[in-house]
From TrEMBL, chains A, B:
It comes from the Bacteria. This is Molybdopterin converting factor subunit 1. Pfam families: ThiS. InterPro entries: Beta-grasp_dom_sf, Mopterin_synth/thiamin_S_b, ThiS/MoaD-like. SUPFAM superfamilies: MoaD/ThiS.
TrEMBL record, chains C, D:
The keyword Membrane does not apply. Pathway: Cofactor biosynthesis; molybdopterin biosynthesis. This is Molybdopterin synthase catalytic subunit. Heterotetramer of 2 MoaD subunits and 2 MoaE subunits. Also stable as homodimer. The enzyme changes between these two forms during catalysis.
Amino acid sequence: MAAIEMLYFAWVREAVGTGAETVTPPEGVATLGDLVGWLSGRSPGHATAFAEPHRLRAAIDQDFVDFAAPIAGAREIALFPPVTGG
Amino acid sequence: MAAIEMLYFAWVREAVGTGAETVTPPEGVATLGDLVGWLSGRSPGHATAFAEPHRLRAAIDQDFVDFAAPIAGAREIALFPPVTGG
Amino acid sequence: MRDIRVQIERFDPGEELARLEALGGGGVASFTGIVRGEGGLVELLLEHHPGMTAQAMARIAVEAERRWPLLGLTLIHRHGPLAPGERIVFVGTAAMHRGPALEASAFLIDWLKTAAPFWKRERFADGREAWVEPRAGDAAAAARWDDQG
Amino acid sequence: MRDIRVQIERFDPGEELARLEALGGGGVASFTGIVRGEGGLVELLLEHHPGMTAQAMARIAVEAERRWPLLGLTLIHRHGPLAPGERIVFVGTAAMHRGPALEASAFLIDWLKTAAPFWKRERFADGREAWVEPRAGDAAAAARWDDQG
C-alpha cells in the first residue's frame, strides 16, 4: 500500500505527540477503522489518542468520512475530535 | 359623547384631506365600525377614504383594535391602511 | 440593554453592532433593511404615527425579551424621505449563545413589519407615486411566531 | 458575491455589512461570534485544518446559495489565539427580501459549527487548559436544516 500522510488535530495531535506523520499500512488494513486500530500500536501516545474511536472524527483527502470508509487510494487522512468552530 | 381626536395616515390621510381632526359623534355611534360609517358622511373625501373598511386598520389610544371595538372613553382614534414598515 | 430609536437621521450598523458585542455575550445577530431602487424608484417616504411608534416598538422588544434570554436589543427605524440604497431599519440582538440572538432578530423584524405603525410611499422617476401594499407573506411571517410563544 | 476568509487578523463587521448592503438587495443579515470571558477564561486558541478549511467553508456557502436566492454571502473565521471579547466568526448575507437573508445566516453559522474543521482550546487564569467539547445542541441545530433541503 502507498504511503499516507496522516494529520492530527486538537487533543488527538497532543496525545499522538505530532501533528503529521507519514505511514504505510500493511495489506489487510482496508478501512479507516482498520487503520485506526493499526495506528494504535505505533506508540503509547497513539494508543491513548485512539482508545475511544467514538470520540474521533475523520477526513480522507479533506472530505469528512465515517470509519467504514475504505482507505485505498487515500493520500491524506486526518483524525480529530468533533469540530468546535463557529 | 366627548370629543375624539381623529388621526389619519398614508392614503387615508390623503383621501380625507387632513391628518387630524376633532369630532364629536352622536349617541348611537358605539363601535369603531359605527364611527367609520358616521365619518363617511362628513365629506366626499371621508366617503372615499372609508369606502372599503376591510382595507382599513385602526388604533384607539394607540392600541391596535378591530372594528367591533367600543369607542366609549376614547380620546384618540387613528385610522390607516395596513402597516408597511420594516 | 434595550435601545429603541425612531429617527430621521442615518445610523451606522457597525457602531450598533459594537455596542451589542460589548455586552459580554457570545453571539450578536442583526438585520438591516435597505431601500431597493427597483422599477425606477427615486424616493421612499416613511410616514409613521409619532405618538404610537416608540410604544409599539417597545412592546415588540418586551415580547422578544420574554421569549429569549437576551443581553441586549437594538431597534432603529427611520422615517421621512429615503433614497435607494439608504438603510431603513436595523434590528440587533446580543445573547450568550447564537440561537436566541438569531431567532430574536428574525422575530423582531417580522413583528416590526406588521405591528409598528409605519407606511411607505414610493415615488418613481416618471413622477408616479404609490403607497406600498403589505406583502402577503408579511402577516404569515409574523404569525408563525404565534405558535411558539 | 461570495467572500470566504480564514484569517488570524481581526475583521470589522461594519465594513463587511457595508459591502453586503451595496449589492442592491433589501435585506442584510449577520451573525458575529465573540469569545466569552466566562469562568476566568484568558485565551481561546482556534486550531484548524489549513488545507481543508476554506474548501469546507466554500461547500457550506454553495449549499446556502442553492437553498436561498442570495445576492451576497460573507464568511470569516479567525484562527490562532483570541482574547475574551474578540470576534471569532462573521456570517453575513444579502438578499432581495429579509427571509432568505435571515434564514441563510442562521443556516451558515449552524453548519460552520458542525462542518468546518476548527477546534477551540480554552486557557484559564488558573493555568488550566481544556479543549472545548461540542455542545449537544450544535448537531441538532445543524440537523434541523436537513429536513428543509
